[in-house]
Design goal:
It is built from 11 helices and 2 strands, in the order H-H-H-H-H-H-H-H-H-H-H-E-E. With 317 residues, it is mainly alpha-helical. The protein has a single domain, classed as Formate dehydrogenase/DMSO reductase domain (Formate dehydrogenase/DMSO reductase fold, Up-down Bundle), CATH 1.20.1630.10. A two-stranded antiparallel ribbon has the order 1-2. Helix 2 packs antiparallel against helix 3, helix 3 packs antiparallel against helix 6 and helix 8 packs across helix 9.
């Protein structure tokens, strides 16, 4: 059996700052956030909430289009050969997560656009009356509206899962190699989306519903984190060492304080008090959830870079 070693190279001052930089964590966070927004918006449409005045499901798609574009820009900036990105769309590789991701991201845009034009804001409708006419005709067809809602939920779910699958398939990185990583990223994306929509939702019933949903997502997220760590600890020696990066290693303080504590536990208690009318709804908890979700991506991406196999030996560069 090879000896288990842990090393740190001289060129890294802090393991939180990885060779990948900020682009990939930002892309993963915004991708998960948009995925959650699509699922929630689709649910609102399918449940008939879109018929109520000031439903946030008509604002969400437009915001999501901007956010996914920012995420795609971050991903593009991270590419080494930017001029050849078009080649991803000349073929489809069933076994390639990157190929799946490229086509999924391409599918997201038309679905979000269809969702957005169901109800055009008045300031845009005055400038683009033809777009308003299309939206009115589309919203007048109940079956078409239901299809758009279902497509939004399905594509959002696939996008949210993909952000985790992209990392978990890399067996050479023990800190990423968990079959539950995609579930964590999907639930985290839903939690961040519920928190984000909660911030600008105009209807009181929507804010309450989103807070209750986010509480469920946060509880599920805590359980998934625990299961991932337990899975690492009861697995191979290299994954046991990967778990230690989060338990008492260089990522422990950031992970337990900012991701678990301030990003999950504290906002969970705040929102539990809020939905039970003990305190007023506050933007503090949703902001903490979103910041925690962002830091979660930075920590996981960095930990994966920090851990790895090299000729049968687990090393941390």
């Amino acid at each position: 059996m090879h000896e288990l070693i842990i090393t740190r190279s001289n060129h890294l001052i802090d393991p939180i700052f990885t060779p990948w930089g900020w682009e990939i964590p930002i892309y993963l966070f915004l991708g998960g956030l948009v995925a959650g927004m699509m699922i929630i918006s689709g649910y609102f449409i399918l449940s008939g909430r879109h018929q109520k005045k000031d439903c946030s499901c008509f604002v969400v798609p437009t915001v999501a289009l901007a956010l996914i574009s920012i995420g795609m820009t971050a991903l593009f900036l991270d590419l080494e050969h930017k001029l050849y990105v078009w080649r991803l769309y000349t073929t489809f590789q069933w076994t390639s997560p990157m190929s799946w991701g490229a086509w999924i991201l391409l599918l997201v845009y038309p679905i979000l656009t269809l969702n957005a034009i169901l109800k055009i804001p008045e300031n845009i409708a005055k400038k683009l009356p033809w777009l308003k006419n299309i939206g009115e005709k589309l919203s007048g067809r109940k079956f078409a509206v239901k299809v758009i809602g279902a497509m939004s939920m399905i594509s959002g779910g696939i996008l949210g899962m993909y952000t985790g699958v992209l990392l978990s398939t890399l067996v050479a990185r023990p800190a990423w190699n968990s079959s539950m990583l995609w579930i964590l990223f999907l639930v985290s994306g839903l939690s961040a989306a519920a928190a984000f929509i909660h911030l600008f939702a105009k209807r009181e019933d929507e804010r309450r519903l989103l807070a209750k949903a986010d509480n469920g997502f946060l509880i599920a997220e805590l359980m998934i984190v625990a299961l991932i760590i337990i899975g690492f600890l009861t697995s191979s020696e290299v994954q046991n060492a990967a778990a230690m990066l989060f338990i008492n290693g260089p990522y422990a303080a950031v992970f337990w304080v900012f991701v678990v504590g301030l990003g999950m536990v504290v906002p969970l208690f705040i929102q539990l008090f809020a939905v039970n009318d003990k305190i007023q709804h506050t933007p503090i908890a949703p902001i903490m959830v979103m910041v925690g979700g962002l830091i979660l991506r930075f920590v996981i991406v960095s930990a994966g870079q920090y851990s790895g196999w090299f000729t049968g030996t687990f090393t941390t560069p």
